Amino acid sequence: STLVKDYLWDEVLLVVLSWASHAEEVVRKIPTSVVLAGEKFSLVEKTRNVFQNDWFRCDLLTDLVWVQLCWELKNVLALAWWLSDGLWYWINTKALLFTKWLHEILLLGKRLWVEIETLISYAWVWDVYVTCSSSLSRNWNAWNLIAQGKIETLKERKINWMVCEWIYMLDVLEKYIGDFEWDFPFINKL
C-alpha cells in the first residue's frame, strides 16, 4: 500500500483484503474469513458490504501497514513448517516451531508498537494455519521438495517457475532486526 501511494495514487484511500484462503473452497461456499484493512474505518466498512456474505466473512482492522507485514511475518513460520514437513518431522516439532515463532513475533510487535489486535486477530491466526498446514499451497510443495534435496524433481515438475517469495522476507527481517541488534533466535536460525 505504501508503494501504491508513493508511485501511483497518493491521495487515494486504500483497503486491503488480506489472509489466506483457498479459492477452491471459497467457490464451493465453504466458510472462510478474511480481513479488510484500511486507514479510514468507514471505507473499510463499505468495502465489507461488497465482499461479505453467508460463507465469506470479513473482519475489519485499521492497522493497514502491519496487516500487510503480518502476511510476511507468518511466512517465516511457514517456511520452517514446510521444511519440517520435507524432513519428515511431525507434530511435536511443529508445535515447538509455532511456540518459538509466536514468542518472537509478539516481542517484535511489542517493540514496534503494533496493535495487539492485529497480531492476534482470528483471521491472522487463520492465515497462519492455512498457510502452514495446507499441502495445496504451491509454496508448500516447492519447499517440501527443497527440504528433501529434490531440486531436480522441482525442475522436472516445472515447479521452478513458482515464486517461493517468502525467502526474501528472511533477508528483510535479518537486516531490520540486525539494525536494532535485537535477539530473535528462531528468525536468526532460519
Description:
With about 190 residues, this protein is mainly alpha-helical. The chain is about 60% helix and about 10% strand. The protein has helices spanning about 1-5, 25, 40-50, 65-85, 90-110, 115-120, 120-135, 140-145, 150-155, 165-180, 185-190; strands at about 15-20, 30-40, 55-60. A three-stranded mixed sheet has the order 1-2-3, sandwiched between helices. Strand 2, helix 3 and strand 3 form a beta-alpha-beta unit. The longest helix has 23 residues, at about 65-85. It starts with a helix and ends with a helix.
Explain the layout of strands and helices.
Blueprint: H1 2-7, E1 15-18, H2 23-26, E2 32-38, H3 41-51, E3 56-61, H4 64-86, H5 91-111, H6 116-120, H7 122-133, H8 138-147, H9 151-156, H10 167-180, H11 185-189
Parallel strand pairs: 2-3
Antiparallel strand pairs: 1-2
| SSE sequence, one letter per element | HEHEHEHHHHHHHH
Question: Helical residue percent?
Answer: 55-70%
Strand order of the largest sheet: 1-2-3
The biggest beta sheet reads: 3 strands, mixed
Low-confidence stretches: none
Count of helical stretches: 11
Count of distinct strands: 3
Terminal CA distance = 27 Å
Average pLDDT taken over every residue: 77
Gross morphology:
globular
Beta-strand residue fraction: 5-15%
Instruction: Determine Rg (CA atoms, Å).
Output: 18 Å
Structural class: mainly alpha
